[in-house]
Every structure is written in C-alpha cells, then in structure tokens.
UniProtKB/TrEMBL annotation:
UniProt superkingdom: Eukaryota
Keyword Nucleus in annotation: no
Listed transmembrane segments: none
UniProt keyword terms in alphabetical order: FAD, Flavoprotein, NADP, Oxidoreductase
Native species: Sporothrix eucalyptigena
InterPro entries: FAD-binding_Monooxygenases, FAD/NAD-bd_sf, Flavin_mOase-like
Protein name: Cyclohexanone monooxygenase
Short name of any one Pfam family annotated for the protein: FMO-like
C-alpha cells in the first residue's frame, strides 16, 4: 500500500461512462461523499474512446438515455432516430454538468489497485496519479468492452503506415484520399466502413466472417413524432421495464410458423423498411433466436437482399454469410451499397488468409501485397477480463479478481462477487442481456438498494463505533447464478456462433463463458425485486 495520505470518502466509483455517471449521481443524491475516477480526460466511457467515424448507438435515440431525468427526457434534443458518438458524448457531459457531478470526478486518473482491508472494512484505492482513497464502497463501472482486442498477426509492428484500432481513435487522423484497409466486420467495422467509404481513395475490407446486417432506418425525427413520444414517455418506460430487450415496447410472442410464407415475406420486407436490428429480430417473430428453421428463413431473407444490392458477384459472394443468423444483430446505414463502388473492395479471408503484415501493407497467402496508407483494426474487445486486467483488485484474504475469474468471469446478477465485500460492478459479467442504457440504470438502483438496506440498520456508520455490516454475496449464490446463465443461454441460436465476445470465444486463450443473463431485463428485474422484498437472502 502507498504511504501517500489517503483521502477518505464513502464511495469510489471507477469509470465515468453511462454506468459511472449514474452511480456517481446516485451516491451524491443519497448524501454520500463520492469520488469518481476516470482514465479519460472527460466523461463518456466507451463513447469517449470509440470515436471512429460512423460510431453511433443502434438503440433508438429516445431510449438511449437516462430515464430518471424527466426534464431531459422531454427537452434534450435528439434530432435523428439514432444518436451518434459525438452526440452521446455531449449528452453524458451535459448530464455531468447539469447535476454538478464534475466536482466529484477526477479525470486522467486510472485505478492501479483496490485492496480490501478487513480490519477497517474499507477499500484502499491507489491511482496512477499518486492519489489514494479509502472508501467503504467500491463500484467498478469500467465497461465490459473497454480493452481493445488486437489479434496477433505476424509482422504487426512492421507496418510503415498508420496502424489504428477503432477502440482508441486518434483525433489527428484524416482518411481523405488515403488507401485504407479494415480488418473486422462486426458492428464497429460495418459502421466504420460505411462512413469512410465516400472519403477514402481506396478501401479494402479484410473480412474473416461475413455478417447479416439490416438497415438502421436512420433519419430525422419529426416534431410530431417527438411530441408523441414525449406525451407517452411514462407509458413507454413502463413497457420497457417489462421487456426482455430494454429496447422494444412490442416484443412479439408469435412464432414464425404461425404466419403463412407470404405473410412472412411481407413482414420481413416491412421490417427491412422500418430498420433496426433489434426490431427486426424481436418485434414480429418470437423465435428467430430460438428456432433454427425461423432463423434460417430470416438469414435467407437478408442474403436475398445482399444479392439484390451488391452488383459484383464476387463481392456479393464474399459478403454473403453461410451460417445461421446467429451473431449479435447488426444494422447499418448502407453498408452493402458501398461495395458497388469501384474503389471499395473486399478480400475474403476464408479463401485468401492474411500471411503477414509487411511495411507496405498486408501480404495475403496468395502472395499479393496490398499496399496501404492506413491499417485499421475493428477487431473488437477483450471483454470483461481485458478491462479488469488493467487493475489489481484484491478482495478478502488476498483473493484477486484474476483468481476469482480463473474459470472465466462470473458474478451474481452482474453486480456482486463472493469474497469482494462492499464492491459492486456495473455491467459486470452475467448481467441482463438488454439495452446498455437500461441495464446500467437497473444495476445502479439495485446497488443503491443493497447499500440502503445495510445502512438503514444504522450499522455502517462513519464513526466506526460498530463494525459496519458488509454487503457480500454468498459463494453458492454466485455459483448458482452462473449455472442459471449457462442454462438460459442453452437454447439460444446465438450460442452456435464462433468467435463471439458474448460467449468469451473471440480472444484466444480466454475461457468460454456466457457473458449475459439471457432472459434480459424483465427476468433480471423479477429476480432482483424478489431479492429486495425478501431482505436480500443471497447476501451474507
Ligand atoms: P466484434 O463484434 O467482436 O467483431 C470483431 C470483428 O473482427 C469480427 O468481424 C471478427 O471476425 C474480426 N476479427 C477478429 N480477429 C480477427 C482476425 N485475427 N482476423 C480477421 N478478423 C478478425 O467487435 P465490434 O467492435 O464490431 O463489436 C463489439 C461490440 O461493440 C458490439 O457487439 C456492440 O455491442 C458494440 P470474426 O467474425 O470473428 O470472424
């Protein structure tokens, strides 16, 4: 432990993204002294780092925000159906300023370690700035997806041009007139390529797996639409808290087989015109992710669209998946269309793998050297473990998170880990699989309920007269939760995907896990509500 004088606070929050901002607000408004530390120079979290062109939310604007600031809900501008990265960054910083949270925040500060002190029942938090905090509560809101996954390709460091990862996008890069390669065709790669295609001299996608993507339906929101949403916000959120996805007020309970083949095609076409991947997946058919036949039919419809849109048969072939529609659903603002331009090309890595990176660019196994100015990795994240590996968190009896997660990340409800008293995660492993903006809200509320529960007993006083009661989940509850998450994911077609961060299989060497609680928001809320009603029996 550092010899530096400790600053005593009630709570330390790590991270000032969607989760950390709300957690800081919640502590502050409940009267706790709180320090939020953030490694970036401002609030924003993933929306600060992922500044690549085209970055935007694929949850619709009216739901990609906090529900608890009613005034903002009604007045804060969101002119389009989806909010872009700069808009989200601005919004989060607006919330920080509006609620005077900046005074509780410390930027350009990373947590190096957090160590549980069982004598004093405190967390000692050491930062790279030399700051040391002692806090009764520690909340890590560091994001599940905040550490870049950089695949180890031979010769990676030999490239003489500019090498970038979408996760840490620099401000000084201008791609105009450049020859650019993108490795990665997940939601990030698809957004990025669609956005940069008009301005680069040449764009080549080095694609390992083609994906099924549907249109976002991005476009302006009229004054009438906004008025209608404003007039119904309470009712909308009532439905959202009852939904699995946290995105949709209308999740279908009708299986695909209940429609005739003609009706299905009409519905697919309607969904395609409406846009939004989650709407496409869940609003009209209930079984796209659970019934293989329904899934194949959906995949076939999208593949038909690819064939219609992409004129060059070679490019169309490369862009057409041969798999189920089983990845995290994607949507785009014209992705397939960019391949109709002569300066946009695709290398199908299934046929011609990368041999190595060379100073001039990428050498593929057929001996071709693709000369490049800029090489962009849109290769995703080392989810959860990557994030938590940046810091050393040591709980009871010297037990570290790295040890706790030796069989892959786990928690109870995405929030608590056995052996880590008075510590909580926002967006930890096995939280609800739902819209992130709603997930952070329900998790923070649950954390505050847990804290209020022990504090109302009067046990956790600053005076230290009594040993404060601790909040610590039972180990058997965490183990059962993990089993439950495995079971709930068992029937999902998403499980058939390889290389998925949702199943911990995208980074070599990581243990496969089920990252989410698949029943989503509704199921998670039912369980945690019961937990609160019964006086938190899962906790010691
Ligand atoms: P994803 O969804 O993990 O996608 C990563 C992409 O990078 C995907 O196309 C991968 O191909 C590709 N990739 C990864 N490693 C390699 C190597 N070694 N060679 C070639 N291609 C590779 O990350 P995103 O950033 O797009 O999205 C992550 C989340 O962010 C998303 O779910 C949203 O919640 C926001 P693969 O498909 O594995 O063959």
């Amino acid at each position: 432990m550092s010899s530096q004088k400790e600053t005593r606070v009630d709570a330390v929050v790590v991270g000032a993204g969607f989760g950390g901002v709300y957690q800081t607000y919640s502590f502050k408004s409940a009267g706790y002294s709180v320090r939020c530390i953030e490694r970036a120079p401002t609030a924003g979290g993933v929306w600060y780092w992922n500044r690549y062109p085209g970055a935007m939310s694929d949850t619709e604007s009216y739901l990609y925000r906090y529900s608890w600031d009613k005034e903002d809900l009604l007045t804060y501008p969101w002119p389009n159906r989806y909010v872009t990265q700069p808009e989200i960054l601005k919004y989060l910083n607006h919330v920080v300023d509006k609620h005077n949270l900046r005074e509780s925040m410390q930027f350009n500060t990373s947590m190096e370690s957090a160590t549980w002190d069982a004598e004093q029942n405190l967390w000692h938090v050491v930062c790279d700035t030399g700051d040391v905090f002692a806090a009764r509560y520690l909340v890590t809101a560091m994001g599940a997806l905040s550490e870049a996954h950089f695949p180890q390709i031979a010769g990676l460091n030999s490239f003489a041009g500019r090498l970038l990862h979408t996760q840490d996008w620099p401000d000084d890069i201008d791609l105009t007139g450049k020859t650019v390669a993108v490795i990665g065709s997940g939601s990030t790669g698809v957004q990025l390529m669609t956005a940069i295609a008009p301005r680069v001299k040449r764009l080549v996608s080095f694609q390992r797996s083609p994906q099924h993507s549907v249109p976002t339906g991005q476009g302006p929101v009229s004054e009438e639409e906004r008025k209608e949403i404003n007039a119904n916000y309470d009712k909308i959120y009532e439905k959202i808290w009852q939904s699995n996805s946290g995105f949709l007020t209308n999740e279908s309970d009708r299986p695909m087989s209940s429609y005739t083949p003609e009706q299905r095609q009409e519905i697919f076409e309607w969904l395609w015109q409406q846009g939004n991947a989650f709407r496409f997946n869940m609003s009209k058919f209930s079984d796209i992710t659970t019934n293989e036949e329904a899934n194949r039919e959906t995949a076939k419809f999208i593949e038909g669209k690819i064939a219609q849109i992409v004129k060059d048969p070679k490019k169309a072939k490369a862009l057409t998946p041969k798999t189920l529609y089983h990845r995290r659903p994607l949507c785009d603002t014209g992705y397939y269309y960019i391949f109709n331009q002569d300066h946009v090309d695709i290398v199908d890595l299934r046929e011609t793998p990368i041999e190595s990176i060379v100073p001039e660019g990428i050498r593929t196994k057929d001996g071709t050297v693709h000369e490049l100015d800029v090489l962009i990795f849109a290769t995703g994240f080392d989810a959860l473990e990557g994030t938590y590996a940046r810091t050393k968190i040591t709980g009871r009896d010297g037990h570290t998170i790295a040890e706790h997660w030796k069989n892959g990340p786990s928690s109870f409800a995405g929030v608590s880990m056995a052996g880590f008293p008075n510590m909580f995660m926002v967006f930890g492993p096995q939280g609800p699989m739902s819209n992130g903006a709603t997930v952070v809200e329900v998790e923070v509320r649950f954390i505050m309920q847990l804290i209020a529960n022990v504090e109302k007993s009067g046990a956790a006083t600053e005076s230290g007269a009594k040993k404060p009661k601790l909040i610590e989940v039972k180990p058997e509850v965490e183990a059962q939760w993990r089993k439950l998450c495995d079971k709930e994911a068992e029937t999902s077609i998403l499980k058939k995907a390889t290389n998925s961060w949702i199943f911990g299989t995208n980074v070599p060497g990581r243990k496969p896990i089920v990252t989410f609680y698949f029943p989503g928001l509704k199921g998670w809320l039912e369980i945690t509500r019961k937990e609160a009603e019964q006086g938190f029996p899962s906790y010691m």
